[in-house]
Design brief:
The structure is a homodimer. With about 220 residues, chain A is of the alpha+beta class. Chain A has helices at about 5-20, 25-30, 35-50, 65-85, 95-100, 110-115, 165-175, 205-210; strands at about 50-55, 60, 145, 155-160, 180-185, 195-200, 200-205, 215. The interface of A and B includes residues 87, 98, 113 and 114 of A. Chain A binds a DNA duplex (30 and 30 nucleotides) through α3.
DNA sequence: ATTTTAATTTAAGCATGCTTAAAAATAAAA
DNA sequence: TTTTATTTTTAAGCATGCTTAAATTAAAAT
């Protein structure tokens, strides 16, 4: 195989199955910013390659081979993110885009070496779990979006979505980072925005922001 | 621009102009392992992009823009090689192939960070000079292929060609590395093979080997 | 100078990964 | 249940970067 486009499709499918329990052509198209027609096309090719189980109109699944390929892509991506962040000193809001390209261009040998240098990290800089060489995925602690918390509740950040750099820059600016404590002071029903307390300071955040920050459930 | 194929063509053209003083479609085709027709095709595209000066049958030159793009590609490649070798601990016979892919997938920011971490190296693991951010190329000391040395002459290795992994594995095995002293004990006219002394030990090497190892001229 | 060989370019065609527009299937609303 | 809206697939077409085969040009040999 070995093909940047196919690798991207597989990653998107894998992550959505993992996080949402399902995937439709629709979602793939919007995540990869291509037309629905392009997705149908590629699904056929991936099916022919034996990587995807695809029944038109019915559903999309990964085959065993497709899943293990995809899992390895996620592993590559997240190891690159940790490496860029910890060894090269790149900010957490920049590593995702860089890793998105590097993940397709590195040998397994290089990935394994970086993993060893980093002493086998279990989570990437945004809290996402890193599959081991054998494919085992560390369990994420139980968590829910900040947007689900009620007034008065508080908890620690355990994961943030990493696909939008501007989002990461913004939340860094108000002090959000992994393991930081956040308290919901006020929640407004008309637009779902909320006032939160971070390091003693109050901040107003939109529901869009709150939906992409995840809080550990105690 | 930004395109793996075009970047590879530019690098090959630049290196050949730099090292041999000229370049023909022929050479490009063999270095990139594509047909001559593919080269003609691509030369037209690069000309249209304003990166190459191309007169059919007459000659190939880089424009100012093409040269600076190519120089930056060589810079990326060689900084990756040093980084992989020194930071990641990858053997000198493996870094070239890995860098050949990574060079297309990294931001200038990443390259500059790696360069800084490495304290601005001037030469890559095979002795090739690394262009600075501004494009300045460190001067290589005067040198000639080992194959040109006469019986009794000796000198230190200053550079080796890095494009064939097996070649590097082989010469490593007989003790050839940068700055190592080599003495020519015997030179056989019928096949240009020679017996050389490395670290006190005699070795028989073919002219093909000797042509790819470069010795500093005192 | 003529012939032969080698290098280069042109021509036609193929696979990949997209696009837009139209058709078909499914899901949602009335 | 019937109509409407949404999603998905099919169809046709385009750019890219290759290929092989044929034609052209340049270089080398006689
Ligand atoms: Mn990421
Ligand atoms: Mn991440
Ligand atoms: Mn190299
Ligand atoms: Mn090198």
């Amino acid at each position: 195989m070995k093909n940047i486009s196919k690798e991207d499709y597989l990653s998107v499918i894998f992550k959505n199955l993992d996080e949402e329990g399902g995937i439709k052509p629709n979602i793939i198209a919007s995540k990869l910013v291509v037309s629905n027609a392009a997705v149908t096309d590629m699904l056929k090719k991936l099916a022919k390659d034996g990587l995807v189980d695809y029944k038109p109109y019915k559903g999309i699944q990964l085959t065993a081979e497709g899943e293990s390929y995809a899992r390895n892509m996620v592993r590559r991506h997240r190891i690159w993110e940790v490496f860029l962040n910890e060894v090269v000193g790149m900010a957490w809001d920049k590593v995702h885009d860089e890793a998105n390209r590097l993940e397709h261009s590195s040998s397994d040998d290089l990935i394994n070496r970086m993993e060893e240098m980093l002493d086998y990290p279990e989570y990437d800089p945004h809290g996402d779990p890193i599959p081991s060489k054998s494919g085992r995925m560390p369990k994420l602690k139980k968590h829910r979006p900040l947007s689900d918390l009620n007034e008065g509740e508080s908890g620690r950040v355990i994961r943030v979505n990493d696909f939008d750099q501007k989002f990461l820059v913004y939340i860094s600016g108000i002090g959000v980072k992994l393991d930081e404590k956040i308290t919901v002071k006020e929640k407004r029903s008309f637009d779902k925005s909320m006032e939160v307390i971070i390091k003693g300071k109050p901040w107003n955040i939109s529901s869009k922001i709150a939906k992409n920050v995840f809080i550990e459930v105690k």
